[in-house]
Amino acid sequence: QLNMAKKTEEFLKEFKEGPLQFKPTYKFDLDSEVYDTSEKKRKPAWTDRILWKVKNLCEAASEEGKFPEEENQISVTLNSYVSHMSYGISDHKPVTGTFKLEMKPLVSDPLVTLNPEGEWSAEQDVLIRYSAAPELPSSAWDWIGLFQVTFRHVKDYVTYAWVEDDEIASSRDSKQVYLSASEIPKTGGEFLLCYYSNNLQSIVGISEPFQV
């Protein structure tokens, strides 16, 4: 039924599935590996399935005319696709799949270079100088965040500055933004500056580590 539906239903056509190298996973008598012995005697079926589809960011952007179409930035490889016959709490047997996910960077070189200016401390306002590549699709919603070097997620910022609202100087080659002294952590430590692009939904520039 699924293979037939994949030929006729448009939304299913791009989904992939691994080979069915395990026994049908439905319908079993409870707490057993015996197929249905009830009066209905239902035929065994591969009811439990795992399908996947990858839609790359660059594909979505090219559909909107923002970027040229490029090779896939995300690839998925199926490592295993198995059923687990030892489970008996249902008339189905569970199915699991494990995948290898590879992601290529959207850009090979940073679109923004960042540098903290002077010594940073919580005793005075501080300055950030940055320069952006011409191809950066900049936005008024872009921001520069101050992160600890051990950060794991874009939301782990300590504080941030809007690149437009907090700009204090601009030239052909670079721009300056400021951070208020009240936003700088008094405990100090090792930090990074990261430029977040709203259009690309990604960090596109990271400074060298520096001390506060």
From TrEMBL:
One Gene Ontology biological process: negative regulation of insulin receptor signaling pathway
Record-level GO cellular component terms: endoplasmic reticulum; plasma membrane; ruffle
Residues spanning the membrane: none
Annotated GO MF terms: inositol bisphosphate phosphatase activity; phosphatidylinositol-3,4,5-trisphosphate 5-phosphatase activity; phosphatidylinositol-4,5-bisphosphate 5-phosphatase activity
Domain SKICH, residue spans: 112-212
Residue ranges annotated for the Inositol polyphosphate-related phosphatase domain, each copy included: 1-97
Family under the similarity heading: Belongs to the inositol 1,4,5-trisphosphate 5-phosphatase type II family.
UniProt name for this protein: INP5K phosphatase
Organism of origin: Irena cyanogastra
Gene: Inpp5k
